[in-house]
Design brief:
The radius of gyration is 20 Å and the shape is elongated. It is built from nine helices and 13 strands. The N and C termini lie close together (9 Å). It has two domains: 155 residues, Helicase, Ruva Protein, domain 3, CATH 1.10.8; 128 residues, MutM-like, N-terminal (N-terminal domain of MutM-like DNA repair proteins), CATH 3.20.190. The chain is of the alpha+beta class and 317 residues long. The strands form four sheets. A five-stranded mixed sheet has the order 2-9-5-4-3, with helices on both faces. Strands 1-7-8-6 form a four-stranded antiparallel sheet. Bound molecules: zinc ion. The site of zinc ion has 7 residues, from loops.
């Protein structure tokens, strides 16, 4: 199959670099989305089979993160138990532990799940010491402290996590997307961020996938054709899988890291995100535009992303 990924020399130009220096704070900050959280999950998989020796909250001057139950109860419930599996639901890492307990870690804005030493000690929020072949610790680090760690029963996972989330973005079908959104008057870009519809897509990958699908992000859901829903689903899957292959996107603020405290690589492959003013890497006729939808930046090419039909240069997928 022909690659849907376009390579652009323009982005390395001095002009492009100057623009990237001017990008707003919000656009330099990566919020972990499905590819980043999936990379964290895969990175910590070696802890499966390890025994938990202690759950510790390191000394931290910052406002405490939301943790339930409190650290002493969490330690009591987990000490001596083995880790059974590490999964993911949307943008959460789910650590399954003996006795049907699940630790749900939601990184939110700046959280990281790590095996290696963290970027800073002052923002280290949780240390789980382990006995096993894979190393001796699992860490949760969070600069802003908006992330959460919860220890849940299967029933609680059902009501507090599963009931609030739509089908995973890697698994959802075009028919499911259309069934959920086909009557909605929301703009497609805004609707894709709704975790109750599809779990895992955030601001960055919504913009990227609509670029590959060749669809204008302002298109109302109820105006999208069956063929367009299919293109959205296919582009979603390809963009997310490709981003996982590159271990996610580490933007200018450098916050996002994989489980070994290394950078992701997909930021070098962004086509439209935070590239306002750059020439479109696909059609070269358009200039990437930034607009605001539901208080979030959206980036797109006004020439080859259309509300109807398909621009001749969009690879049909
Ligand atoms: Zn274009």
């Amino acid at each position: 199959m022909q690659s849907i990924f376009y390579k652009s020399a323009q982005r390395l130009s001095p002009e492009g670099n100057r623009r990237s220096m001017q990008r707003s704070r919000a656009e330099r900050e990566s919020v972990p989305e499905l590819p980043e959280v999936e990379t964290m999950r895969r990175g910590v998989l070696p802890i499966v089979g390890s025994r938990i020796d202690a759950v510790i909250r390191p000394p931290c001057d910052r406002k405490p993160i939301l943790m339930t139950p409190r650290i002493d109860a969490m330690d009591r419930r987990l000490r001596g138990k083995h880790i059974v599996d590490v999964g993911r639901r949307g943008k959460r890492v789910m650590i399954n532990i003996e006795d049907e307990q699940t630790m749900v870690i939601e990184p939110r804005m700046t959280g990281l799940v790590l095996l290696a030493d963290p970027p800073t000690l002052e923002h280290l929020r949780l240390r789980i010491t382990l006995s096993g072949p894979a190393g001796d610790q699992l860490l949760f680090w969070d600069r802003r402290g908006l992330g959460t760690v919860r220890l849940l029963t299967p029933k609680q996972v059902e009501t507090l996590v599963d009931a609030k989330l739509g089908v995973d973005a890697l698994a959802i079908t075009a028919e499911q997307l259309k069934a959920k959104l086909g009557k909605s008057q929301r703009a497609i870009k805004v609707a894709l961020l709704d975790q109750a519809v599809v779990a895992g897509v955030g601001n960055l990958y919504a913009a990227e996938l609509l670029f590959f699908a060749g669809i204008d992000p302002r298109t109302r859901c109820d105006r999208l054709t069956q063929v367009q829903w299919r293109r959205i689903q296919a582009a979603m899957r390809q963009v997310l899988e490709e981003a996982i292959r590159y271990e996610g996107s580490t933007l200018g603020d450098g916050t996002y890291r994989n489980a070994l405290n290394g950078e992701g690589g997909y930021q070098a492959h962004h086509q439209v995100y935070a590239r306002a003013g750059d020439p479109c890497p696909r059609c070269y006729d358009g200039v990437i535009r930034r607009i605001v939808q539901a208080q979030r930046s959206t980036f797109f090419c006004p020439v080859c992303q259309q509300k109807r039909g398909l621009h001749r240069l969009v690879v049909p997928i």
